[in-house]
Amino acid sequence: PVRLVWLRNDLRLTDNPALAHACRDEASVVLVVTLTPETWEAHGESAARMGLWRDQLESLQSERERLRLPLKVLRLKRFDDCPKALTELARTLNATEICFNYEYPLNERQRDGAVCAEAEKAGIATRAFHGELIIPPGQVLTGQGGPFKVYTPFSNAWRKRLIDFDQPVLAVPQPRHHRACESDPIPEDLDYTALSYRNDLWPVGEEAISERLNRFVRERVQDYAKKRDFPRTDPDAEGTSRLSPYLTIGALSPRQCMAALRAQCDDPDWLNSSWLNELIWREFYRHLLVAFPGLSRLEPFRPEVEARISWLGEDAAFDAWCRGETGFPIVDAAMKQLLETGWMHNRLRMVVASYLTKLLRVDWRRGADFFMRHLIDADFASNLGGWQWSSSVGADAAPYFRIFNPQTQGEKFDPEGTFVAHWLPELRALTPHKRRQQPGAGAQAGRPEPIIDYRQARQAALNDYQS
Ligand code: FAD
């Protein structure tokens, strides 16, 4: 028989359950990707993320060829085109089954449902797997059988539940005997847009990625809890793993991360390590997306909180934030990092999101959309979770009255002012270091004046919320 494996955000040959299933016997297997530029545009897919996705797909080529796994590229427009095109391809190749790994946002699930229905009408079987999570959605539930709405009890239950889902990393499948067809070339721009990302910072290929993972768990995971909140200018000195872009396109699976943590770090208490905790946050947000479909429609998790906020539709302030020109050093440095590298440190994501939604009172959806369009690790579930958390409308979010002070955040997490001086060179001459974190620092040297007064903006936000 011939089977199709429809690759999406699971661009790996190792630990890929759909691929392992398709290769379980002697069958010939064909990989297929669907290019849907109109839907990508509607979803605001960033050129950085799609560039990484493209190059990772290309990087699989030599291993794919060795395994006799040809790749077909279906050049379509929208998700809606997938059911017919995939069924047609399966028919042409005499394939009996289409296998894929689930994706959890609503549009993706609807697309997949339509593909299964169309294929089944044509007598072609479909099989789906949870390759993107360690524990599938719906499997970590409260005593009453409902979804958790708060993180800590979720994570405790997740750890207990792990025993039932603690499977080994799946090996790369055995080579096929026959190549079922020829491969298609992968278009440079995926028919989408000019793709670009910092390939010096994010090399592709399963080997390079697994090396980065192993180095992190060998050398840095022990200090993760201590160092994770401090952004660095040198990527190699960063306290966090910087693996999110790979997890987002599925070049790496969370199970591979957990297995490396267990095998490489000598912490017997690995299950309680703070790095695993972050991977569990990733799982939490995906579980929520499935349990609460309104989230995919950008509804707040806590509408009663959002109802008390009046968003100010101020374009000038939003534009200044987007360009990193607010006059608040830590905010501007973070936004410059995003614009130049497609990545931003987690602490800074929280700072800039709080600044935008609470001090500028710009709707969190605008910030989330901007992040989706610029982040190399843009990920619908984690981004939505992060923005709703930061604006206090999310599950287990900080209360609305907790508003980050950008100056003290800078003083605390960039105490030498090294990070701001790197991204805002105008500030380099300023000493002592603390001055670099003051709003308006460097105004004489060409940096903008602060676009708001922190105290007034904070008070206005609190008044609004309490009114
Ligand atoms: P590490 O600290 O090494 O953590 C390991 C992995 O755990 C990460 O690669 C990531 O997959 C996961 N993870 C870590 N923190 C979180 C978190 N808070 N929520 C969910 N998963 C987490 N993450 C994305 O992957 N894509 C996004 O689009 C995204 N948008 C965000 C927007 C906002 C406003 C905020 C506050 C956070 C966002 N995050 C997002 C979460 C987090 O900032 C990144 O996952 C993290 O900075 C990635 O760096 P790292 O790989 O070095 O993480």
Q: What fraction strand? A: 5-15%
Number of helices: 21
- CATH C-level class of the largest domain: Mainly Alpha
* CATH architecture title of the largest domain: Orthogonal Bundle
What order do the strands of the largest sheet run in, or round the barrel if closed? 3-2-1-4-5
CATH topological fold name of the largest domain: DNA Cyclobutane Dipyrimidine Photolyase, subunit A, domain 3
Helix/strand/pairing class, anyone? alpha/beta
| Structural domain count | 3
Number of strands: 5
Roughly what is the average pLDDT, rounded to an integer? Answer: 96
- Residue share in helices? 40-55%
Distance between the termini: 66 Å
Order of helices and strands: EHEHHHEHEHEHHHHHHHHHHHHHHH
Looking at the structure, what is the overall shape?
globular
Structural account:
- The structure is a single chain.
- This protein is of the alpha/beta class.
- It folds into 3 domains: 2-132, HUPs (Rossmann fold, 3-Layer(aba) Sandwich); 206-291, Serine Threonine Protein Phosphatase 5, Tetratricopeptide repeat; 303-466, Orthogonal Bundle (DNA Cyclobutane Dipyrimidine Photolyase, subunit A, domain 3).
- 46% of the residues lie in helices and 6% in strands.
- It contains 21 helices and 5 strands.
- The chain has helices spanning 17-22, 37-43, 47-59, 61-66, 82-92, 106-121, 151-161, 206-220, 224-227, 244-249, 254-264, 274-291, 303-306, 315-323, 329-341, 346-359, 364-374, 380-390, 406-413, 418-423, 454-466; strands spanning 2-6, 28-35, 71-75, 95-101, 125-129.
- It has a 5-stranded parallel β-sheet.
- Helix 6 links the parallel strand 4 (95-101) and strand 5 (125-129).
- Helix 7 (151-161) crosses helix 12 (274-291).
- It is globular, with a radius of gyration of 23 Å.
- The protein starts with a strand and ends with a helix.
- The model has no long low-confidence stretch (mean pLDDT 96).
- Flavin-adenine dinucleotide binds next to helix 10, helix 12, helix 16 and helix 18.
- Belongs to the DNA photolyase family.
- InterPro entries: Crypto/Photolyase_FAD-like_sf, Crypto/Photolyase_N_sf, Cryptochr/Photolyase_FAD-bd, Cryptochrome/DNA_photolyase_1, DNA_photolyase_N, Rossmann-like_a/b/a_fold.
- The record marks 311, 364, 387 as: Electron transfer via tryptophanyl radical.
- This is Deoxyribodipyrimidine photolyase.
- Residues 1-134 form the Photolyase/cryptochrome alpha/beta domain.
